Structure formats: structure tokens, C-alpha cells
Amino acid sequence: MSATQIITLAALALLFFWGVGAYNRLVRLRNEITNAFAQIDVQLKRRHDLIPNLVEVARKYLVHERETLERVTAARNQAIAACDLVRSRPSQAGPVKSLALAEDVLSAAMRGFNAVVESYPELQADETLQRLSEELTHTENKVAFSRQLFNDATLDYNNAAQAFPANLVAGVFGFKEAAMLQATQSDAERAAIKVTL
Hints:
7 helices; disordered C terminus; single chain; mainly alpha; 197 residues
């Protein structure tokens, strides 16, 4: 074997091993997204399980607020369906964006529910409702923390898949950009709060 052939074989071997390493890194990072979503999934399931209990406690007080209770229930069901879609494909952008929208609808429905609860002092004084509301608040905090971990894992994956020369491996093997799980607030919700005196 000539020196040129040895150098060529060595270069090809290095290129091959680098490609295998880049591929394996992308797989590991995509799997971290799946793991991070599993943490969100646990918290969302807890949230989705608490909401019917809140609605049931409030139902006896909110006889005239049936529409509010139905809105919360429908939004919860949509969020569960969206969560089920993401569970099977957490690194795909479409299902993640659908989940973000569904969770925003659920959050808006819960804000409406809480506004109604505030106008019923006897409901606010209900110990079961207070306990469930506190559990829901703790769960919301855990969801926010888990969402941050998911978004961090997604950022690491996207950075690895888009950086040269690993983007060549990502393109060949179909590693698509993953979406972050972000709240999709309206412009009115994003606007700064104006205080007037």
C-alpha cells in the first residue's frame, strides 16, 4: 500500500467515525427531548386530573355558571388529546405547537373559572376547593419547570442538528427541527400593564 492510499483510508475512517459520533449524538439529544416531555406529561396529567375535581366541587355552588364549567371541561379534553399526540412524537413541531395552543385555551378557561369562583364567597371558603386550588398551583409551577427542561433539551438538539458539519448528518438521516413548548399569548396578554393613578 502506498502512503497516499493509507492517508486516504485513514481520512475515510476518521470521517466514518465522526459521522457515527454525530449521528449518535443527535439520537441521544432527540431522546433527551422525549425524556423531558415525559416529565411534562406527568405534570400535565396531574393538572388534567385535578381540574374535574375542581369543577365537581364548584358545580354545587355554580348552578348558574354551567357554561363556564363546560368550557373548562371541553378545554381540558382538548389538552388531553393534544398531550396524547405529543407523547408519541415529542420532537415533532406540529404536535408540540398544538399542545401549546390547547394548554393556552385551558389556561384561559381556568382564568375564567377562577374569576367566577371569586364572585362566590361561599365557594372560596370551601376547604376542598382551597386544597385542590393549592395543589393545582403547585402543579402549575412543576409544569413550568418541566417546560423549561424540555425547552433546554430542544435547544441543545436544534443547536446540534443545525451546526456545521453535523447538519449534514442531520439532513441525510432526517433529523428535523424540534419545536419548543411555549405559551402562545395574544398581543393583548403580552402588552405591558399600564398603571393609572
